[in-house]
Amino acid sequence: MESIGTNTLDSLIWMFADFTSALGVIIIITAVTPPFIFVAVVITRYLDSTRELKRLESNASAPLLSLFGELIQGVSSIRAFGLKKYYIMEAINRSDELNRPRWMSVRLDAAGATVSFFCAFFILWNVHSFDAGLAGFALVHALQFKDYMLFAIRNYGDNELNMNGVERVSQYLKLDQEASAQSTPENKPVSNWPRTGDLEIEDLVVEYVPNVPVLHGLSMSIKHGEKIGVVGRTGAGKSTLSLAFLRFIEAAKGRIVLDGVDISKIGLEDLRRNVTIIPQDPVLFNGTIRFNLDPFSEYPDEIVWDALHRAHLVRERGSQTASTAISVFEGNAIDSSLERMSGIFTSLEAEIKENGQNLSLGQRQLVALARALVRRSRLIIMDEATASVDFDTDDRIQRTIRGSEFADSTLFCIAHRLRTIIDYDRVLVLDKGKVAEFDTPANLLNRQGSIFRSMCEKSGEFEYLADAAKRAQDAKQFS
Ligand SMILES: Nc1ncnc2c1ncn2[C@@H]1O[C@H](COP(=O)(O)OP(=O)(O)OP(=O)(O)O)[C@@H](O)[C@H]1O
């Protein structure tokens, strides 16, 4: 964008100025020495190839520069593997490639010299019939011809590079746009929508490429507050389903109805404010932890602290205001509001760097979980949300999810770790974009030959999973 804004116009103007000047010179010399027109035609044809050479020169510089980068970063590995000779030869070859098009300037010099030569030759040939002033005028311009052409071609090359940026922007402009973010008065859901997490998925077909469905007509009915584990082989369509809930991909057919409202009919803002996704790699913003949990400052500090506590991002419960929570840690003489070693927050003003660079992936996932806790959405989707935390933390998070915090929320949890979802209400097994199995974990485990049973067997912890599923089933029957 910077090169479009600053360089493109300049190089365009200079290119036109230089080409016009070169054309002016050709006209002047041709007027004085008419046979020059033949030389001009030959030279212009030859200049077509010099433009191509300029493009080759630009292309050849990237491999050489990237080789320098590799050399600087990997110098110890190169020495360790004795690859010095290889890299020296590679550098020589790449700089040869870069220098080959540089013959362009030599050829241009030759072209310029040819122009001056022919001009001088013609003048001398007709020396008696020429006015001295006119001869000098033509010769001076003939000598400048080379410079004009050199700059015109240089600007032409720069211009081609800058135009790559313009071309990319124009491609982006042609991309399909998302649906409208705002609901219209006719399709705006009621203010407290969704009151329940009742969900109906009816014959849902989703495709990334037209007519190539990834989800093939999924249909299911989920009751308010149900916890659904979603499993399946890689590429089965689990993440696609989660993207469809937020309409990152629109349904090609069928619909998703949340608490009686077809989600495809409302504005994206209303939908995405009310559905929370905790993705595999959560996005965090540069700012404070408070800003990351509650960007629109809609909730009091107590709720934000509570969410941090439940997501295991503060050490002690204590009192839940910022000032008192800091005082809990006063004895530790913490000079930062984020304890670096443990990733525990001691102030809501703790800094989060761009994209959460100062947190581990597991900690970023916990922050995303805290975000969901603050919003208490009725529909929560966790896409491998705890894949990067240790078993113990995962276990505690699962207890939080099953606890009163999410009692009112319908939860979809995509998990490769089967123990994460083994005591959920139901397990959805996706296979090649279709519902292969959908039942309680205990029922699926008891069904000989079920995909879920075979996944549990292959996990190496079948006994544990079978026991946990049975205990969960018994607990539900008892309650
Ligand atoms: N952006 C995309 N464009 C085209 N096809 C895609 C795109 N993203 C995913 N797919 C295809 O959709 C299918 C389902 O992918 P999806 O990511 O939903 O699988 P998944 O079950 O979540 O896999 P994993 O467990 O590895 O995350 C795959 O066949 C994949 O190739």
TrEMBL record:
Main location: membrane
Keyword list, A-Z: ATP-binding, Hydrolase, Membrane, Nucleotide-binding, Repeat, Transmembrane, Transmembrane helix, Transport
Membrane topology according to the record: Multi-pass membrane protein
Record-linked Gene3D superfamilies: ABC transporter type 1, transmembrane domain, P-loop containing nucleotide triphosphate hydrolases
Pfam family, one: ABC_membrane
Alphabetical list of SMART domains matching this protein: AAA (SM00382)
Residue ranges of domain ABC transmembrane type-1 in the record: 1-124
Molecular function, one GO term: ABC-type transporter activity
CDD domains: ABCC_MRP_domain2
Highest taxon of the lineage: Eukaryota
Keyword Ribosomal protein (UniProt): no
Annotated ranges, domain ABC transporter: 199-457
CC annotations in GO: membrane
Subcellular compartments: Membrane
Protein name per UniProt: p-loop containing nucleoside triphosphate hydrolase protein
Source organism of the structure: Linderina pennispora
